[in-house]
Structures are given as C-alpha cells and as structure tokens.
Amino acid sequence: MVSHYGPGSDRTELTRRSRLSRFNLAIALGSGVSVVVALGLFFGTLGPFPSTQGGSGAATSPPPTPTPPPNSSGPGTPPPPGPTGPPARPSWCNSVSTPTPSALLIPVPNPSGFVAGGAQVSATYAYAIVNYSASDAGASLSFPSLFATFPMSSGGPLTIYFPPAAQNISGPGWWSPPSASQSVGVPATDSFGSGSALLSSEKLAVLGSSEYGNLTVEVRWHWAVYQPDAGGTVGGWSQPTSSAYWPAAVPSIFFPAPYVGLVRTTPNPALIGSEYSMWISGYVPGRSFFLEVEDPVTGQVSQAQAASPPETGPTPAEVQVLLLNYDSYLYPGTYLAHLHDACGALLYSVSVQTVYAASATVGFSASASSCGPVEFNHSAYAPGKSATVRPSETPFAFSAPSCPGFSLVGWTTSGGLHIVDSSHLLVSSSGSMSFRYQ
User: Fold this and answer.
1) Is 409 exposed, middle or buried (CB count within 10 Å of its CB: 0-12, 13-18, 19+)?
2) Which of 14, 242, 325, 368 has the fewest CB neighbours in a 10 Å radius?
C-alpha cells in the first residue's frame, strides 16, 4: 500500500516551522518531499492567464503593467473562471461547503485557572463511523498530523502534536489510533488564557479508502490537566456536528476524501518557469484535481492549474502546476504547492524551493518588416534574433525598435517575461517578446 504521506515524510512535516515563519523564524527545509500545511489557504475560481500579455496604446506611451513589489511573488490578477480553473464542485461532495472540506477544526472550552510548571496537559481524539454496517469493515482512515492548541496567558499557545495515523475500521462505536493520546509538560507556572482549545489538522483532509458518500465519519476530542500536587481535571468530549462555523470550526461529521497517495514530486530546487510535478496514486484515474502555488507566510496564491489524469494512463499519474505567477514572473524562494481534489479537499501541501535557471533566452519579433533593432540590456538585437541573459529580480532595460512608416501599438510576451513598464522587462525564465505596429 502506498504511504499516505509520501516518501520519507508525513503530510505536515513542516507545519509548525511554517507557522512560526510568520514570526520571522526560519523555515527549515528537509530533504526529499517536505510536506507542509498551507497558511492562509485560498480555494477559489482561479486559473492562469493566457500565455501572452501586453499593452496597447500610442508609441510614445505604451500602458505600464503592475510593478512587482520587492521580495514578493507578485499578486497578479486572478483571471476569470475558465477551463484551466478549479473543477466545478460535484454534487457528491460534503453537503456543507467550507474552504477546508474533510479537515478537522474542532473547538472546545479551554481549561481555566492557574497551572503549575511541570503539570501535564493531555489530549485524546476518537472517531466513529456514522450508521456503521458490516460493509464498512476493512475500510481504512488516514489522519494527517494533528495539533491541539491551548491559549495561555503568557503569550503563545501550548501545543500538543499527534503524528499521522492510519487505521482499519473494525466495527461500530468509538475508536482511537494508538497515537491518538498525547501529552505535553507545562514549562513554567502559567494560567490558561481566554478563547477555545482547538484540535486542528491545519486544513489537510482526513482520507478514506472509499468514494465520497460511502463513509461518514465523526470525530471528537477532549483534554485533561494533571497538576503536580492538585490532582487532575478532565474536560468533556466535544460534540460532533455536521454544521460549520467558519473560520472558528468546520464540520466534525463529514465524508473523508478518497485516498490519494503522493508517490514523488519534482525534486528541490525546482526551476522557475518549469512545470512542477506531483506523481499520485489511489483514487486518481479519470478524476479532477486542482493545484496551487502560494506564499507560505502570506497565503498569497501565485498560480493555479487544473489537472485531470485520464481513465487509462500511467500509474502513478503526473499532475502539474507552472512555477510562474499570474503576471509571468516569480522570485526565487520557498513556496507551497497544494494538491486539492474536485471537492476542494486539501490532500497535500509540499514545500518547494525555487531557483532561476543558469540562463534564459529572450526572443524578439516585430509585426512590421522595416523595423530596426530592439535595444535590450545595452545591446541591439534585430527582430528574429534572441538574447541570452541570466534571470534576475532586477528588470532589464529595453526600448522598442523604430519602424519607419509604422506606429507602435503594443506588445505581447510569452514564457517567464513580465513587462514592468514601457522600458523595463523582468526575466524569470525563457520567453519571447513581440512588438505590434500599424
């Protein structure tokens, strides 16, 4: 059976480190497939721009396009829905729609009062199959890494980590994987803060070995506090519900997402301008998926792309997303590549380290035959010729060719080229630039 969590790592290996990056702490990258939780997940009707972009207007003042902000992947403008956007949400998905279907986000009242240093705080979760029948026996559930967080008066929350777990369904009633009870020591005397304690899968879906609708699972959890000299306090179990209270809670009675295994990915570092690939198995052939690239700190989506492996094709199936943003550029750095299913469930979120290629080719063309050379990076190139440069976060200067008897009306670009303004071109990967005259 293919590992639920990919080779060498679980689906949330870098979750805590990614979350801490919001507080300017470094994200530590592991080797192999580093799988992390997405921060600020957005699952909307996005699709990449067409392969060309450009402006039109008088020759003396072609309209500028947005200037890329420093040290950013650039927002771009999400295009309208289209064939490359996310698949339409099928009718057989979870009936209550949330941005994180089949995931866990379950609040309970936080413990209260003083807690001594050295006290133990524990948490336990359990699951049951709703309306269990004999046909459910032998099916399995796969839980991603989970986190129970408790607000504390001193500042940051107290956190309990649950490793990923997979378990075969054995019968009716409540069951817990062996790793479903965990505890943590309180490092110093403190008191519990206001707000709710939360059990969260950090937006990753619970997976099951069946189609949507064939299994309905309910999940509950509770905590206990054991003081060194004051005995213990046990909180009540959460009450499973099919209702959503986004962003505070999502349904804890739901269909798990059909199992998809992550077999391998494009290795790090990945080249900007290339297609980033995931090879997946399980409930894959003939199904629709949706991939995104986003910033791990801000959650800003840079690129989105739909994928539909054929009914009959190679196994594992390859799905891809372009490592450029909507405005056809991307800066080197760490990003997240998300894999969603057709219902929007977040199946995997993989840490991707992007780098520029050693060189990029920029081709030039003009619609008029009488044009002189293009001035680019302080050199002249006749239309039909190309320049080779090293991709850079610093734009290259250019000027349109002079074409006697014609007026410049605009331009188009392809590949990893972004026109910053009427005289500067950002080169992230190879592409072409065409000048239009009339």
Assistant:
1) middle
2) 242
Least Cα distance to 88 among 143, 119, 45 occurs for: 45
Report d(CA 42, CA 293) in Å as an integer. 10
CA angle 159, 161, 167 (to 5 degrees): 150
**pTM of the predicted model, to two decimals?**
0.81
| Domain extents in the chain | 1-48+260-355, 53-83+358-438, 103-255
Total residue length of the chain: 438
CATH topology of domain 1-48+260-355: Immunoglobulin-like (2.60.40)
Assess whether pLDDT exceeds 90 at residue 259. yes
Q: How many Å from the N-terminal Cα to the C-terminal Cα in the chain?
A: 62
pLDDT band at 228 (very low <50, low <70, confident <90, very high): confident
- Among the listed residues 56, 58, 19, the one whose alpha carbon sits nearest the alpha carbon of residue 39: 19
Architecture of domain 103-255: Sandwich (2.60)
Percent of the chain with pLDDT over 70: 80
